[in-house]
Specification:
The complex is a heterodimer. Chain A is α/β, with parallel strands linked by helices. Chain A contains 17 helices and 11 strands. Chain A is globular and about 65 Å long. The chains are: A alpha/beta, B mainly alpha.
């Protein structure tokens, strides 16, 4: 029974709970023991053991009385940049080590309202800045498929917790690929919703015109159900869309053939690993054999997406992270002896190297004399990229891309060269720049055995369509 | 472009940071900015910057005080307080 749980959907777990073949306290115990056995993976920063067990007893009773919410039976972990009242949250940074949330994020409130059990907080890159989980103050997370390799990032702990069966699903955040890329590296499903679909209230800000919360799951069905609960307008986030949230989990059955574009420049890219290319070609052939139209399209901006993304995200980061001043909350240097040294020493000691590099460059591209040449230029190119993708999506239902140019790389392989690390985001940042929904689903294994992810980008607020198609092909 | 030491110092001051390894910061910033300079290949004279991703123009609410943090909660995570206010090093010498 236990091993079978790992591959069950939330719906199946719920039906086992209703039938009585499984109890919720038993399920939570099972995950707690999995977490203990796999402590070496370093996926969890903190486990809410007693609280999860207490909630399990309460929700078990609700299930028996027929009053349980939609997510009763879901045991979920949350990335360490999502606030949960009276619980610690640190964005995996020394700056916030020991910080206790004084309110909950909207996504956490919505999960709890539907009786999900939050089992702990998950390791990630510091302030979600990284693609390998190597920038975390709490140390790297190991990829369970091969522990000499990175889990991806920044939601590395979220991906590994699901991959290794330490919890049923996890929430991550995706700014330039931070849900999709680790999902691809760990062989699971990762969804980045349309910008504005999910409230960002209570999510520690990195780059506010990109950040979105998204689920990491084993099945598309679970991603659909979780999105359905966390999405929707929120007075606490003025960028959250007032659009109604469809019942994604109820509209997964889809028929008919679809039109899919792949980007020629992506599949011909010299940086694309041959094993990943092979997986994509197999998927394209398979989709065609199932009757779908899959056509190669030109996308002349591929070489521009990564620099555009980094100019804008670093600018936004430098502004967002100005709030860490050593005064109101967070780390204060013991060497601070004036107001200015409180700021400077606290920030210098509290932030890690990658975070400081991004703040410095973000400050540079926003500074007088460089603003037009970098920041404003990137905002213009962002429009070109968004319009090009919208143009493709006027003719096609989805855009297909590999999620990553290579499978999971080894620890230390890229961390010394930021540009090499940034280039790994080449296939995920276009959806982020355009604010479009995108999902990564497992697309088979690389010849060396590592998981490979395939990405589908959908139309703006087209999650229902995107999820039902992904459900059908995975 | 090669980022000079004085530019790094100026940015560090604006960002309220200290630079621990000047040479490495100069090298990293120069390399990353060279990479960003790629955008100059594109003609964007006729392109308006894309600033907001949302379709909504304005989102307003009634001007009423809503959920607020209590003083206790607001001070809870502060490095130093006197129980009523945040405490910082002395700013003005009297």
């Amino acid at each position: 029974m236990k091993t079978k749980n790992r591959d069950s959907t939330i719906r199946e777990v719920r039906s086992s709970l209703s039938e009585g073949s499984l109890t919720l306290p038993g399920l939570v115990d099972y995950y707690l023991s999995r977490i203990r056995e796999n402590a070496h993976l370093n996926a969890f920063i903190e486990v809410f053991s007693e609280e999860a067990l207490a909630a399990a007893n309460v929700i078990q009773e609700k299930i028996e009385q027929g009053t349980a919410g939609k997510l009763a039976g879901l045991v979920i972990g949350i990335k360490d940049n999502i606030c949960y009242r009276d619980h610690r949250v640190a964005a995996s940074s020394r700056m916030l080590d020991g910080f206790v949330s004084v309110y909950s994020s909207t996504v956490v409130e919505r999960l709890l309202q539907e009786d999900a059990i939050i089992i702990g907080r998950l390791n990630c890159d510091e302030f979600a800045m990284g693609a390998s989980n190597e920038t975390s103050f709490y140390g790297p997370v190991l990829n369970a498929a091969d522990t000499t390799r990175v889990p991806g990032g920044s939601s590395g702990g979220s991906a590994v917790a699901v991959q290794a069966g330490l919890c049923h699903a996890a929430l991550g955040t995706d700014t330039g690929g931070s849900v999709r890329q680790p999902a691809a590296f760990c062989g699971i499903v990762g969804l980045k919703p349309t910008y504005g679909r999910v409230s960002r209230k209570g999510v520690i800000a990195y780059a506010s015109s990109f950040d979105q919360v998204g689920p990491l799951t084993r099945s598309v069905e679970d991603a659909a159900l979780i999105l359905e609960v966390i999405a929707g307008p929120d007075p606490g986030d003025s960028t959250s869309s007032p659009r109604e949230v469809p019942a994604y989990s109820q509209s997964l059955q889809q028929e008919g053939t679809r039109r899919i574009a792949y980007l020629k420049e992506a599949l011909d890219s010299p940086g694309l690993d041959s094993g990943v290319r092979q997986c994509m070609e197999q998927q394209i052939a398979r989709l065609r054999s199932e009757g779908h139209t899959v056509e190669g399209c030109d996308f002349p901006y591929l070489d521009y997406v990564v620099p555009t993304y980094y100019i804008l995200s670093m600018a936004e980061a430098s502004s967002n992270l100005a709030r860490y001043d050593g005064v109101h909350y967070g780390y204060r240097s013991p060497l601070a002896d004036s107001l200015e040294s409180t700021y400077k020493k606290s920030r210098t000691e509290g932030f890690g190297e990658e975070v400081k590099r991004r703040i410095m460059l973000g400050t540079f591209v926003l500074s007088a004399g460089y603003y037009e040449a970098y920041y404003s230029k990137a905002q213009k190119v962002r429009r070109l990229i968004r319009d090009a993708l919208s143009g493709l999506l006027a003719n096609y239902d989805f855009i297909l891309l590999p999620t990553t140019p290579t499978p999971a790389f080894r620890f230390g392989e890229k961390i010394d060269d930021p540009v090499v690390m940034y280039l790994g985001d080449i296939f995920t940042v276009q959806a982020s720049l355009a604010g479009l929904p995108a999902i990564s689903i497992p697309a088979g294994n690389h010849p060396d055995g590592l998981p490979v992810g395939m990405q589908l980008i959908g139309r703006k607020f087209g999650e229902a369509d995107l999820l039902s198609f992904a459900h059908r092909i995975f | 472009m090669r980022v000079s030491k004085s530019t790094v110092e100026k940015m560090a001051h604006l960002a309220r940071l200290e630079v621990e390894n000047m040479e490495k910061m100069q090298e990293d910033m120069s390399r990353i900015l060279d990479f960003m300079d790629k955008l100059n290949e594109l003609d964007t004279d006729q392109v308006a910057p894309l600033i907001y991703l949302n379709d909504e123009v304005n989102v307003t609410r009634p001007d009423e005080t809503g959920e607020e943090l209590s003083r206790e909660d607001a001070l809870k995570n502060a490095p130093d307080t006197d129980g009523t206010f945040f405490k910082v090093a002395k700013v003005i010498d009297l």
